[in-house]
Amino acid sequence: MLHRNDPGYDAERTGFQLLDPHRPDLVVPAATPEDVRRAVAYAADAGLPVAVQATGHGLPQAATEGVLITTGRMNAVTVDPATATARIEAGVRWEQVIAAAARHGLAPLSGSSPSVGAVSYTLGGGLGLLARTYGYAADRVRAVDVVTADAEMRHVTPGDDLFWALVGGRAAFGVVTALEIGLVPVARLYGGALHFEQVETALRTWRDWTETVPDEMTSSIAVIPFPGRTVAHIRIAYTGDPKEGERLVRPLRAIGPRLLDTVGEMPYTASAAIHNDPTTPSGYFATHSLLRELPDVTPLLGVRGVIEVRHLGGALARPQGAPNAVGNRSARYFAAVLSPGLAPGTDVAALRPAHDAVHDALSPWATGGRLLNFLYGANAGPEQVRRAYEPEDYARLTALKAKWDPDHLFRLNHPIPPEVVTPTP
Question: What is the rounded CA–CA span in Å between residue 282 and residue 322?
C-alpha cells in the first residue's frame, strides 16, 4: 500500500485524465486477484470506501479519501479462436486485445483509442468503432471475475443478478479482475477520416447522410478548432464490401476540397487512425446529450472547444447476447462538447456556460439520457449516473446494490446508492 507521502504515490494515483486525479488515503497497486481481495477486505474492515482505476481515461469524480485499487499490472490476454472469445484481465488495454485477436482474423468491439482500459470501457457499455454493426461491447461479455464487498472472489455468468448489474454498472458492485468477451470476425474494414474546412456543409451533409446508411456503417463527426481555422473531421468504419463502402462515402467526398482523406481499406489493427485520439495524458472537461434526432446543426457552430456527434442506432438499439444494465438504447445520436488541454486543477465553472448553451439548444430533441463511460469529473454525480439507465433498471440496480454492497463500499467511482427500505410499521 502507498500512503500520501510515500514515493510512487503520485505516479500510481494519476491516470490519463489529469484535470482532477484521485487523491485517496491509500493506493494499492494490485498485481493479482488476491491483491484485490486483500485490499477490499482491508477497506471494509477499516470502514474506507473503495475506488478502482485501470488507465484513468474515464475518471469519475476524484476520490479524496479511501482506498484506490489500481489494476494496470493485471494485463494478461488469452484468445480462444475456436470459440471466438478472449479472456482479458482488469488492466488490459484495447491495443493488446486487438493485436492478439488479429492473429486469428478476429477483433474486439474496441473504442476509438486503443490505449483505453478494455475492462472498464466494456463494463460501462462500450461505444466502439463497429457499434452500429455489432452493438455495445458490454453485449459481448460472457463471464465476469469479481471481488465483491464481502471480499469474496466470484465468477459470475449470464442469468446471475450480479452479472446483470456489473455489465453496465461498471465499478459500483465490485472490483472486476477479468472478463471473458466475445470477438467478431473482422480482420479488415473500409475506414478512415475525411477533413474539411466547410464545417457547416459537412455537418449538414453528414447528418442527412446518416439517415440513408446501413447498419454496417458506423460514423461520427467532430468540429475541431485549430489556430486560424476550424476543421470538420468525419470518421468512417464500414464492415461491408470495400467497393460498397466507397460508393456510400461518395456523398461525403463531394462536400468540397478535402484537407485530408485517409478513407480506404485497412486492417483492424490500424483502426486507431480513424479517430486519431490523443495519446498523451492531459486534462479535459466534457458534457454530452443523447438525441432522438439531429434536425438543427446550428448549435454546433462557433463553439469554443471540440464538438463531436456520433451516429447511434443499428445494433446498438437491439440488445445482443445476455441481458445487462446498459440503458438508453433508443437514442439515435450522441452529441458532446469537449474542452481539452486543461491544466490540473482548472475550475470548470467558467466552461459550463458554453457547454450548457449547446445542450440547451439541442434539448428539444434530447432524450435526457446519458452514457456512463462519458460521465467523468464533476459530471459523474448520482443524478447524472441515474440518467445512464432506464428508470426500472435503475430501481433494480439500487435494489441489487442493497444486496451486494449495502454499506456502499464502492461509492468512489460512478455511484449507485443502495435502495433504502423503510421498515413496515
Answer: 36
